Amino acid sequence: MFHKVLIANRGEIAVRIIRACRELGMRTVAVYSTADRNALHAEIADEAICIGPAATKDSYLNINAILEACNLTGADAVHPGFGFLSESSHFAKACELCGVKFVGPSHQSIELMGDKAQAKETMKAAGVPVIPGSEGELRDVETAKAVAAEIGYPVMVKASAGGGGRGIRLVKTEDELASAMTAAQQEALQFFGNDGVYLEKFIVNPRHVEIQILADQFGNVIHLGERDCSVQRRNQKVLEESPCPVMTPELREKMGQAAVSAAKACGYENAGTIEFLLDHEGHFYFMEMNTRIQVEHPITELVTGVDLVKEQLLIAQGNPLSYTQEEIHLTGHAIECRINAENPSLQFRPSPGKITGLHIPGGPGVRIDSAVYEGYEITPYYDSMIAKLIVYARDRETAIMKMKWALAEFLVEGVDTNIDFQLRILRDPDFRKAQVDNGFLDRKMAQGEL
Questions:
Q1: Do 363 and 227 share a structural domain?
Q2: Active site positions, annotated
Q3: Number of domains, the chain
Q4: What is the pTM of this model?
């Protein structure tokens, strides 16, 4: 068993990991920036150490500072959470070289799946359905035009090292291609330090459906069903649910097996997520693999009864999977709403400030993953998420009703939030009928219906 786990993250995911470590009898080390001196994760960990000033590049992205914190505290494992360094092959390799166990996949797997063009070729070789597109990265517009002409418009220009909706441009005609490619390259270079882009066919009005997998070092890989993440604003997830409302047992088996094949193709170990686009005819296409725990992992935990973070830690220790595929069953329905400090009426402008009043909802089937408290200061330096509100019920209709009442009970004073916006989504008749796709939210907002 690990003697001490350092959590290379902050906020609610750091708190979530600390709690999982406690249940397994592992001591924890929190790292924090000067802006997070009073953060909850730094307060509840067994030890806490400051790793730098507020800027992420000087603290939560500072590999040397994090590894020095491991050295000073004697931590023998690092859990990266999500975001920050969680999908950095350089960080994973540095941990390996320093003799600190990285709670996640190998740096080789992260590097392979982090390059979207290489990942696509790996999936094709493994027989996983992929979206038609370019063979590898594109460096000139003429080649891009030839590829687009072959697969047909509309197409998407996407950053090879992208994520979080960055470095993506929709192109409807050839006249738009050159400028879209330049814009995507510039944004990719700014956010990822890599201006590589590739082209793929734009699937009209698909759902965003992802499959959670777990894999150990003995070659065992299982899937834990799916999450529907189609409710997005500008490629950023807003609300997620499990199971997918249009899923059939046959389609779940096909997508689950494709996800398992994808994990095996890259020699994957630990928790990961295979993201697919699902069209209206039941065809699905590999989009990308996230080589970390996901923000929306709680809904999978609620419908399967599997603690994914504890499984991550156990796998990293060298244990075989705690479950077989036959033991995984999806029961009931779970929904997660991301509660952010932002103002939807002002183009979702972030709303930093002090939380002067707070009431957290509760009751059967209501879960809150959060790191805020009354008096907590939401700074402008990091993600504006206040909490993840998750509900679980026997079916989707009951889960929607439970979420509506939970949101109505969730009171935050001192900063603006998107709570009322989430309520409007839940009340929308198309959402209630599960008639959603990736463009659902943007269309509704453009039409003034949300």
A1: yes
A2: 292
A3: 3
A4: 0.90
